[in-house]
TrEMBL record:
Taxon lineage: Bacteria, Pseudomonadati, Pseudomonadota, Alphaproteobacteria, Hyphomicrobiales
Domain EAL stretches: 24-274
Species of provenance: Stappia taiwanensis
Protein name: EAL domain-containing protein
């Protein structure tokens, strides 16, 4: 094993490690061309009102179909974009496309866009958002920006000040992956969040860990008192839907409703969600 031989030094002649490094280099080098060719664009996952199946908003999730490598997950390319500084261009492209698509979809649909810390703390962040809104014609009130705790943690003063200015122009702000960080509760006081997104790890452990349900109930009640909307992420099964609904959750995202789809597929999908709503709610009729 290379590591054992080299006292912790990395030897690039380990074939699988070498391949991983080459892949990373290629991804890093290919951002400019991918952006020019439009290979990176958002897909959209609907945010569902659980009672009715109505789509209240959509989350833009970056997708890259690479000419040689095929589909690359954002879990892989976003960190590479962040490390190499390309996230500014990638993030702006996603933001622009998301705003344009939201205008095209009409119907007052809100669109959520994920932000990286490098984007948020840039001097011209608010100006960029303002410019994109005016170029695309999207009302600021229909744009929601999602940040994680780690984004706020990195440079709290600057991040919070940028978030305030964004909120002043009418944009909503969501705290993403809530509950996974170190000091989740302290970040609730630092800013007037519009929405908390409960991380899917809580949902995932609902079947095996009784505490998860109590934690979700507590977050829902806390958020209600603070007048922050709650959305629960990663709902995959009907059983989870029933438990979450009983815990007071009203809005959800997850594979039970839909994966992220292209903007072209979205209208059909939203229709299907309305039709499917009675099926998800079947479980609620059963005795506890
Ligand atoms: P996120 O913002 O927390 O997005 C939710 C992720 O969970 C998405 O993964 C989504 O496809 C996935 N997901 C949704 N429902 C379910 C479910 O029921 N089960 C499971 N197992 N997963 C579900 P995705 O699209 O791979 O994105 C991963 C992360 O990459 C996002 O997490 C976000 O942090 C980041 N990301 C994606 N697009 C962008 C972007 O344009 N800019 C930035 N800065 N980050 C982005
Ligand atoms: Mg998100
Ligand atoms: Mg999330
Ligand atoms: Mg996440």
């Amino acid at each position: 094993h290379a590591k054992a031989r080299g006292k912790g030094r990395v030897h690039t002649y380990d074939p699988s490690m070498r391949a991983a490094i080459m892949r990373r280099r290629q991804i890093e080098a290919d951002f400019p061309a991918a952006l020019v060719r439009g290979e990176i664009r958002p897909y959209y996952q609907p945010q569902i009102e659980m009672q009715t199946g109505r789509t209240t908003g959509i989350e833009a999730l970056a997708r890259w179909h690479h000419a040689d490598l095929g589909w690359i997950s954002p879990a892989e390319f976003i960190p590479i974009a962040e490390a190499s500084g390309r996230i500014i261009e990638v993030g702006r492209t996603v933001l622009e496309s998301a705003c344009r698509d939201a205008v095209r979809l009409g119907d007052g649909l809100a669109v959520s866009v994920n932000l990286s810390v490098a984007q948020l703390v840039r001097e011209d962040m608010v100006e960029t958002v303002r410019a994109v809104l005016s170029e695309t014609g999207l009302a600021a009130t229909r744009l929601k920006l999602e940040v994680t705790e780690s984004v706020v943690m990195t440079d709290t003063e600057r991040a919070v000040s940028a978030l305030r200015r964004l909120r002043e122009i009418g944009v909503s702000i969501a705290l993403d992956d809530f509950g996974t960080g170190y000091s989740a509760l302290s970040y609730l006081r630092k800013f007037e969040w519009d929405e908390l997104k409960i991380d899917r790890s809580f949902v995932k452990s609902l079947d095996t860990d009784l505490h998860s349900l109590s934690i979700i109930e507590a977050i829902v009640s806390l958020a209600r008192q603070l007048r922050i909307a709650v959305l629960v992420e990663g709902v995959e099964t009907q059983e989870q839907f029933t438990l979450l609904s009983k815990a007071g959750c009203r809005t959800a995202q997850g594979f039970l409703f839909s994966r992220a789809v292209s903007v072209e597929e979205l209208p059909e999908l939203m229709k299907r969600c309305l039709e499917d709503a009675p099926n998800w709610r079947r479980g609620e009729a059963l005795p506890a």
